[in-house]
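Box 3.1 A note on notation
Throughout this textbook, protein chains are presented in two layers. The first layer is the amino acid sequence; the second is a token string describing backbone geometry. Keep the layers aligned when reading.
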Amino acid sequence: MRALALKLLDGYDNHISSKILLLRGLEYQYQPFNSPGIPTGFTGLHGGAYLGYGEIVVDLLEDKWDVQAADLFCNTAISWAARRGHEQVVRVLLQRSDVNPDKPSC
């Protein structure tokens, strides 16, 4: 199951499932879509943080992800995790020296 989740998150921005997931439960101003409805800048790391999958986020961090990458509205993975109340993910991200918990300027 974990391998499947990692495979999905690796190409998260190219899957229709990302749009369906993000449309569910997010107010319009927080949906990271451009005009044709494509998640813009919302990576698999953002997805793992959004969902609160701490172990998956740890695995994703072993790969190529830019932990400071921001989506269309300048949300980073840590801002999604914090907004959604995923303390474990926030702790995992804060342990890294390359994570800045302040919102980036886009």
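The mean pLDDT is 77. The helical segments are 2-10, 16-23, 44-51, 54-61, 77-83, 87-94.
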